[in-house]
Design brief:
The protein has 14 helices and ten strands. The protein is globular and about 55 Å long. The chain has a single domain, classed as TIM Barrel. The chain is of the alpha/beta class. The strands form three sheets. A four-stranded mixed β-sheet has the order 8-1-9-10. A three-stranded parallel β-sheet has the order 2-3-4, covered by helices on one side. The chain has a three-stranded parallel β-sheet with strand order 5-6-7. The relative contact order is 0.16. Helix 1 runs parallel beside helix 3 and helix 3 packs across helix 11.
Length: about 350
């Protein structure tokens, strides 16, 4: 592989093939790939880096999926199992708005007793009381609601949208390769079902983000197969607003294992910027990598650092906790020589900060 020529051709507009992307991840030079990714980012966004103020509200930790990589879920009869009341959800939203938040991301487990009526009532109640964007429910949740409510996925999506759902997070993707999913999350939706939910959502006017959990038992080839499936779906629908790669945290999980290196994370992030010629935003994951690597991600293709994380419970359950204030986020971005800007869910800039 002539890496220099390949990167030059990509910067000239040629789409990477799957095999070329595998070679870049396996054999490519980290700094050369990072430099090319940074050029692509700069062409799109100049010196602007965005973030959002939102809150993750895990409305329940009761889940029938029992993924081996998850330390958050509980069985229904567990002493630590919970389902937030509507009043508790409202209180979290009020605090979010008071801190300048514009979005909530509600995610829970696959609760065996919560059917479509529960979600419709919750969403309508939120929208009646608060001016907040509801970016919530991963594809596995949508598919599970359809199954236990005995209705189609299309009907679930339409009813959720009518009740106030604005967009879907990319939750539950992990690695979209079925031999991997059978090993780590056999009770969760298949790769094809995840993609099908997203495609149906996009065609119904519900945009989403896409994600990848790296650092489990997947191979490099699995990662590229995952990314390729997302790229092909994006070619058809254009409904993915962003791609977010985050690293598996093994603490307190059944799966165990080791944390992926920051070098491998940054290389994968940079390759993703080059691979996804049809997804505009690439988000750096300071929540799993820490603030220093989050900052470095801005030189490896990332144009967005996601949320300041008023609340986050799933990663925290593994023993990893990073927090950030708005002022700290701005300083972190400005220290890289870039300009910080606060965005909303659709990546519109709503506040700029002067260096």
């Amino acid at each position: 592989m002539d890496q220099q020529l390949l990167l030059h051709e990509v910067l000239e507009g040629r789409r990477l093939t799957e095999q070329e992307t595998i070679l870049l991840l396996k054999e490519g030079d980290l700094l050369a790939i990072g430099s090319a990714a940074d050029i692509v980012r700069e062409r799109l966004f100049a010196d602007t880096v965005t973030f959002i103020i939102d809150r993750n509200i895990n409305y329940t930790n009761i889940c029938t999926s029992k993924c081996r990589f998850c330390a958050f879920y509980r069985d229904k009869d567990d002493s630590e199992a919970y389902l937030l009341s509507k009043e508790e959800v409202f209180s979290k939203i009020e605090e979010t708005l008071a801190l300048g938040g514009t979005q909530i991301m509600m995610q829970g487990g696959l609760h065996p007793e919560l059917k479509i009526d529960y979600y419709e009532d919750l969403l309508r109640s939120i929208k009646e009381h608060y001016p907040i964007v509801i970016h919530s429910f991963g594809a596995p949740e949508v598919a599970y609601i359809a199954s236990i409510s005995d209705i189609s996925i299309d009907e679930v999506l339409k009813r959720l949208k009518d009740a106030g759902l604005d967009s879907l997070p990319g939750a539950g993707a992990e690695i979209l390769v079925d031999h991997y999913r059978e090993a780590v999350s056999p009770n969760k939706v298949s790769a094809d079902r995840w993609l099908d939910v997203m495609e149906r959502a996009h065609y119904l006017g519900i945009e989403s983000t896409s994600t990848m959990m790296m650092g489990g038992p997947e191979s490099v080839e699995d990662r590229i197969e995952h990314m390729s499936k997302i790229r092909r779906l994006q070619d058809r629908t254009g409904g993915f607003r962003a791609f977010i790669a985050w690293t598996y945290q093994p603490g307190h999980t059944e799966l165990g294992g080791e944390t992926v290196s920051s070098r491998e994370y940054l290389k994968t992030l940079a390759v993703a910027r080059l691979f996804f010629d049809n997804i505009k935003h690439i988000q750096g994951s300071w929540v799993t990598q820490g603030k220093d690597i989050g900052q470095l991600s801005l030189s490896f293709g990332a144009d967005d650092l996601g949320s300041i994380m008023i609340e986050e419970n799933v990663v925290r359950a593994t023993g990893v906790t990073y927090k950030m204030s708005k002022d700290e986020m701005v300083r972190l971005i400005e220290a890289t020589g870039k300009r910080a800007a606060r965005r909303n869910t659709t990546y519109e800039i709503i506040e700029r900060f002067e260096v």
